[in-house]
Design brief:
The protein is built from three helices and three strands, in the order αββαβα. The protein has about 80 residues and is an alpha+beta fold.
Length: about 80
């Protein structure tokens, strides 16, 4: 799987204002900004992202995914690009 393929899968299941994915084919790092994270604790945000991947985590297609999840307001406070 490529970073673009993983990004496309996440984007298809979660509307994001910003989404970037980097990795080596097994270990991935993602930064996600979505209004859907409003009012959710960190674990619920991560579960929401994992839900977009379905069985890909269980079948080891995506071995490891580290992520930072932000609401649009949190992203703006971080100085993230629009």
């Amino acid at each position: 799987m490529t970073a673009q393929e993983l990004q496309d899968i996440i984007a298809a299941g979660l509307p994001c204002q910003h989404l970037s994915v980097e990795g080596d084919g097994r270990h991935w790092y993602a930064t996600l900004v979505s209004a859907e994270f409003e009012g959710l604790r960190l674990i619920k945000r991560h579960q929401r992202v994992y839900a977009t991947l379905g069985q890909k985590m269980h079948t080891d297609e995506v071995h490891a995914l580290s992520m930072k999840t932000y609401t649009p307001a949190e992203w703006a406070q971080q100085g993230g690009p629009a």
